[in-house]
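Lesson 9: reading folded outputs for more than one chain in a single document. The general rule is that every protein is listed as its sequence immediately followed by its structure tokens, and records are never interleaved. Here is the first one.
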Amino acid sequence: MYGAGDPRQAPAARAKLTVPAMRARKGERPLTVVTAYDFTMARLLDEGGVDALLVGDSLGMVVQGHGNTLPVTVDEICYHGRAVARGARSAHVIGDMPFMSYQVSPMQAVETAGKLMKDGAFESVKLEGGAAFAEHVFRIVSAGIPVMGHVGLTPQAVHALGGFKVQGKRPEDAEQVVRDARALEEAGAYAIVLEAIPPDLAAEVTSAVSVPTIGIGAGAGCDGQVLVCYDLLGMYRGLSPKFVKRFAELGAAVVEATEAFVREVGDRTFPGPEHAFKPNGFATEDRPVH
């Protein structure tokens, strides 16, 4: 029985985007990255043409309802990764390395990255932190696992940073962001997320490294942009950072649709005759049944 979620009903896929292809986009056509946490959202975003899907530890906030990303586990990232991978026909699939899953040692980092690739069906991993984790990145890359870096605002360090605050505003802090990005590049990262830093600093980092930079709250001078899917679609009603643009208001649409469902069930206008089965057991339009 096939319904709207049947993979065979999706349009033809684009070519699968690889890590070398993403690196080759440096300075060319900007890369687009969106978070996803389930099959249906991944399939829709993939059909929309997004280049990469990130199963971010942001799921701790937008899916699980926590105040930050710290509680997310490796097993949870893997669970969501398997679902997203089944929906991503063309988009590259990236898995976040959760808090304390790699910070202890380079060996721990390699083991966690390996688990994400084997159990989460990911095609690369992402970790937060700069020069202090260059050795971790080098060891993971040496194991044959592509790594996306992440500098600037690193949400896993929310308590050390004193909140979700813009980074790199002071000259010495800006210099450290540049050093961190270069260290990740030298360690083998194939791309680097720049989060919540001034646009001029993001442009400087983008010029300073030979790998693509993916901005989020870092201005238009990066080699690509990333957003959380629920922010992009106007579905998350919690924290709304200044850098977020809501390209739709699906949250309001969901509430309106639910209100209509409640109303029509209450006044018995749903289900109608068109939603009933014929005596022979088939739906009135012989449509598949879930």
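And here is the second record, again sequence then tokens.
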Amino acid sequence: MRLASIGALAAVLIASTTALFAGETLDRVTSSGKLNVATNAGWPPQSFLDDSNKLVGFDIDVATEIAKRLGVEPTFDTPEWGVMTGGHWGGRWDVAVGSITPTKPRSEVLDFAGIYYYSPYVFAVHADSKIADQKDLNGKRIGVETSTTSEDYINRRLVIDAPDFPPIEYWLEPGEIKTYADSMLPFDDLRLGDGVRVDAVIAPEQTVMNAIKNGYPIKALAGDYAFREPLVVVADKGDAEWTAKLHETIAAMRDDGTLGKLTEKWYGKDYSR
């Protein structure tokens, strides 16, 4: 089933936003000439530090393009995930571009400006694993990054806050769930060997493919995706004019093919629709 369009999602969310400080953020960004962006520091290829200690990645390129279209320069900060997605920013950041899933709890503290790409989730196992079918993961040790969609899914509490999103089908009964503070740490344990510390990891297809590209001895299990999630650009709750401006900018980037080109650049595939 096709997920809701960016327009439908934004229309619902913007309509539910109380404009307590309408226009305040846009005025601040315009007058300062800077867009303060919250993102991640260790989640390749979304956002990570390269060999020169420069922050690069898909989310960085998206945020940079948003800033460009607003006529300002981007500045980046990398707060803890729970802080970035917890809202109540107090003006520290203007926007967060961090591959954030629109869930119901987050909708209470954040405004979702619009979907900018989609991420299918897959199971990865060690290259030497004899597991060939996803159903064989029942009873196994599964690694996930904490405070993420992966953790919510594995604990059967994931609720995507997007119109017409199909219900999540839960079938996995893990024997043990191991949580990690960083997106690549589950893969670091998985690479140690089949079943040494974990039997499998669930993560976005983009993250798994990037790990394989970078030499991790792992493979993605064949079969249907566990689920497919929309990812949104978010703003702190309460400034409807700013959220609308971000929505307008993201929609233009989708319509002119910029988002498609950026996903192909970083993932080798168009995940923008």
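What the second record shows: The radius of gyration is 19 Å.
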